[in-house]
Design brief:
2 domains, Arc Repressor Mutant, subunit A, 0% strand, mainly alpha, elongated
């Protein structure tokens, strides 16, 4: 079995082979165990609401392979894999929290008076680049405060026939796109 080719992976064949050796004595058994472990990791990340469970599972497997290649002795590979998955999930949660905090700093629909004019202009330009449904979703998602905001999000999820977590992930992706656009625009304005 050859290492899976993913553009973002920096896994060397030797590390992948170390993982296969830890999974089974022969290549067929190791390949089967690899697929089983990957499936368990994908399910773990799905259960925790990760927007990219397959990618995250691959990242976990890459980390495990690098650890084995570096000489780490692993007594129970399944438990070790779960620990790596848990750490990845925590890292991802922290990233999402930072992204949410950054989005809260973006100006609202009309923008407060204290926001510089060029930032408002950039925000309007970035929002205009979104498709109509995306723009509607992101504005509606972050509109309001407190209980009203929570109720509005529940209504949005119900209307879109989505679980709340799926709506949250969709809004996060749109927000990230708007933030990248806003940062680029602000750099070019200066």
């Amino acid at each position: 079995m050859t290492p899976p080719h993913r553009p973002d992976s920096q896994l060397i064949p030797e590390a992948f082979n170390a993982l296969l050796r830890a999974l089974g004595p022969d290549s067929d058994r190791a390949a089967s165990e690899y697929e089983l472990l990957r499936l368990k990791l994908v399910k773990y990340f799905e259960w925790h609401g990760d927007p990219e469970p397959e990618h995250r599972a691959d990242c976990a497997l890459d980390r495990i392979a690098r650890s084995l290649h570096a000489g780490t002795v692993i007594q129970n590979l399944q438990s070790f894999a779960l620990g790596v998955a848990r750490n990845l999930q925590l890292e991802t949660s922290r990233e999402w929290s930072r992204a949410k905090a950054a989005l809260r700093e973006l100006p609202a629909r009309s923008g407060p008076a204290c926001v510089p004019e060029n930032r408002q202009r950039c925000m309007q330009s970035c929002l205009a680049r979104l498709s109509g449904p995306e723009r509607e979703l992101i504005v509606e998602y972050y509109c309001g405060e407190g209980r009203a905001r929570i109720d509005r999000r529940k209504r949005m999820a119900a209307e879109m026939k989505l679980p709340m977590n799926a709506l949250r992930i969709r809004a996060h992706r749109i927000r990230a796109e708007v933030e990248r656009c806003l940062n680029h625009c602000m750099e070019n304005e200066d």
